[in-house]
Amino acid sequence: MSTYYDLYETPDVQNTGEKQPLHARIVPSGTYSKKDFIERVSRYQHFPQNMVDGVVGAVVDELADLLGRGYIVELGELGHFSVSLKCTQKAMSKREIRAESICLSNVHLRPSKVFKLKVRESLRLERVEKSCSTAGKTVITVERRLQLLEEFLKKNGGITRLEYSSLTGLPRLKAIEDLNNFVVTGTLRKRGTGRAVFYVWKQEE
């Protein structure tokens, strides 16, 4: 089975006004839910579904606990999990920072060479026949953009303007307009200021 990709215009982050080179991005085949994933593992790896479900739940719980206690966790061929932090208030010296102004930024996975090799071996790349892009610019519906946004936030917790522009293929100004509209409609909530602005799901606060 082929993995489809398309070519998109890279956002002009520095506002140089120059045409940016194209970059390749996977066209998602869909989303696997936890239930779908467990059924797949059970079917192809020959484990009972309730056993797979229990192991997945236990791994998630123990992983969250260890990361929350400051550990880097290695899960064999999968790779290393770690946590990054952020300051919610600007500070120029350590004396200006209080513990309550430090919070979780993200959970990161650094995949192992073995895992990346396995993914590479399973890739059968093929460019989509009917590109959704015109002159390198993506044209997708707002519903599809919301779906991509929701999937991204479920994995990452927050999204920046640049990340949203790259995710959807929208030019910078249109990406900002989209995000502002989502804030107005109550879908997103804006966090930070200036270049540190990012967005989270309002429903999850």
Short characterization:
The chain is α+β, with helices and mostly antiparallel strands and 205 residues long. It has helices at residues 34-45, 49-68, 113-122, 142-156, 161-168, 172-184; strands at residues 3-9, 22-26, 73-74, 79-87, 102-111, 125-127, 133-134, 137-138, 188-191, 198-201.
Specify the overall morphology.
globular
* Low-pLDDT residue intervals, each spanning 5 or more residues: 132-138
Strand order of the largest sheet: 2-1-6
User: What's the N-to-C terminus distance?
Assistant: 40 Å
Mean pLDDT: 85
How many DSSP helices?
Answer: 6
Oligomer: single chain
User: What series of H and E elements makes up the topology?
Assistant: EEHHEEEHEEEHHHEE
| Main sheet specs | 3 strands, mixed
Residues in β-strands, percent: 15-25%
Percent of residues in helices comes to 25-40%
The count of DSSP E runs of length 2 or more, i.e. the number of strands, is 10
How does the helix and strand content classify structurally? alpha+beta
Rg, nearest Å? 20 Å
How would you portray this structure in words?
With 205 residues, the chain is an alpha+beta fold. It is built from six helices and ten strands. The chain has a three-stranded mixed beta sheet, with no helix packed on it. The chain has a three-stranded antiparallel beta sheet with strand order 3-4-5. It has a two-stranded antiparallel sheet with strand order 7-8. Strand 7 and strand 8 (137-138) form a beta hairpin. It is globular and about 50 Å long. Residues 132-138 have low confidence and may be disordered.
